[in-house]
Design goal:
The complex is a heterodimer of chains A (348) and B (120). Chain A has 348 residues and is α+β, with helices and mostly antiparallel strands. Chain A has eleven helices and nine strands.
């Protein structure tokens, strides 16, 4: 599981415990108690909490709460980009996890939501699943040795399930076809006014090959990578962190899964450091997503690599512009060099 | 640049060692994570002080060759970005890619050299 972090503000914990007792009483009955409340790391822009609900009937339900941060919002805006970052609110995120699960994607159960009031930001609850979400451990630890060879296929299958959701059944969300999504990141990069020859070449390469992107348009997870999947000894246990969901080309999710940054050095395994593209595409086809060409995946792998570079720049400039001074964001800004390096390996 | 020793590189090294030896072992959670991030950031500064000058000079030479004009690093990089975007470099793709690859290798050598070798 993700590591617990110290919370310096105990009164905030106390306030949340009150909110939770109140909310859970209406689900499990009066007298529901909270045990082991701890904030999990992983994402500065959201709060994720883990705890057990002790029900009045003696039952115990391990839960996760994900809610908007109480103290600040760091969603950066950009000159010329009216929609800001492509992302959904917590209620939409929880609803999407429900829909994905119903469509056959392994995902945690979302039993109920948390509405905003004077004591809390909005959020949703999930039943806490057992498993490992840290990418490095998934690739390294013996416990997942039998899971790793299955993962690429299972992930392809899981993606086909949620990509197959009828657009009419989805909550209202933003979306961009491939050409416009490319322009979206182009405009964000331009807003920083920092010339970047390597990324320019990446944008030009993509623009000239737009026909390879395909023209399907579906739900996108938006951050579908090793690090946002929960794995147990049998393989994929859940797809997590749907906050970047949007509408777009479904191969964007598959290409993102192939970006080098989440292979943690296991570069011979293109898919997340654990699998091959063929396995991913086989699973996708088996899940009903159809057969996707390697060229289309390559396009979206390049796109994803460039997109991760721009996202690194966004965080670097979130620090530089003073919106959120942070040594972590400053350091992530320089990780753009990693994606530029990866881009050069992919491009001809 | 009038200076006594310890010079800039040696001061950064001293701060990095202080964080590494005296702060990192005594903090946990988010603070430990941010301390490691800070240590890595200072290591970038040390590598930049040691290697950045030679890299800048080589990059400037490459840019002058590629664009066939004089100028400073900032101007020529701006010009190169504009030219790529306008499609003006399409007929010099091999030379352009050689330059971009060398530039990205230098960047990674400063920002995170272990990225190329680290596993797990």
């Amino acid at each position: 599981m993700v590591e617990a972090v110290q919370n310096p503000d105990l009164t905030a914990d106390q306030q949340l415990a009150d909110v939770l007792r109140d909310r859970l009483a209406s689900e499990y009955g009066d007298g529901t108690e909270i045990e082991g409340l701890v904030r999990l790391s992983g994402g500065a822009s959201r709060e994720t909490w883990s705890f057990d609900a002790l029900k009045p009937d003696g039952g115990r339900q391990p839960l996760i709460l994900k809610r908007d941060p109480m103290d600040r919002q760091v969603d950066k805006t950009f000159e010329g980009v009216p929609e800001g970052r492509l992302a959904v609110d917590r209620l939409t995120e929880g609803r999407l996890i429900q829909l994905a699960g119903a469509a056959g994607t392994p995902a945690p159960t979302v039993p109920f939501f948390l509405s905003a009031d004077e004591h809390t930001t909005p959020g949703f609850f999930t039943h806490r699943l057992e498993g490992e979400a840290l990418g490095r451990r998934i690739l390294r630890e013996d416990a997942y040795a039998n899971a790793r060879p299955k993962l690429a296929f299972q992930i392809g299958h899981a993606a086909a399930c949620f990509h197959g959701l009828d657009l009419d059944t989805l909550p209202e969300m933003r979306g961009l076809p491939a050409a416009e999504e490319l322009l979206h990141y182009r405009t964000i990069m331009d807003s920083f006014q920092q010339p970047h020859a390597g990324f320019e070449y990446g944008f030009r390469w993509l623009r000239e090959r737009l026909e390879a992107a395909g023209n399907r348009y579906t739900l996108n997870h938006g951050d579908f990578r090793n690090g946002n999947i929960l794995v147990d000894e049998n393989g994929l246990a859940g797809v997590l962190d749907w906050e970047s969901a949007h509408l777009g080309n479904p191969s964007a999710d598959l290409g993102w899964m192939c970006v080098r940054s989440w292979r943690y050095g296991y570069h011979d395994k293109v898919v997340g450091g654990f699998g091959d593209v063929t396995e991913l595409l086989d699973g996708y086809e088996a899940g009903g997503g159809g057969r996707i060409s390697p060229d289309e995946i390559h396009f979206w792998q390049v796109f994803g690599t460039l997109r991760w570079g721009i996202l690194c720049m966004i965080l670097g400039f979130t620090h530089l512009d003073g919106e959120q001074r942070s040594v972590e964001y400053a350091a992530i800004g320089r990780r753009a060099a990693e994606t530029e390096h990866d881009l050069m390996l992919l491009l001809d | 640049m009038p200076t006594d020793r310890p010079n800039a590189a040696e001061l950064v090294e001293a701060v990095r060692e202080f964080l590494s030896d005296h702060i990192a072992p005594n903090v946990e959670g988010q603070l430990a994570f941010h301390t490691r991030v800070a240590i890595n950031a200072l290591a970038i500064v040390e590598r930049t002080i040691a290697q950045g000058g030679a890299m800048d000079a080589a990059e400037l030479d490459r840019l002058k060759d590629l664009l066939d004009r004089d100028g400073n690093l900032e101007d020529l990089n701006e010009e190169l970005s504009r030219a790529i975007r306008a499609g003006e470099m399409d007929d010099r793709k091999e030379a352009l890619l050689a330059h971009l690859r060398q530039t990205s290798e230098d960047k990674i050598a400063l920002a995170n050299p272990r990225y190329l070798t680290k596993r797990g």
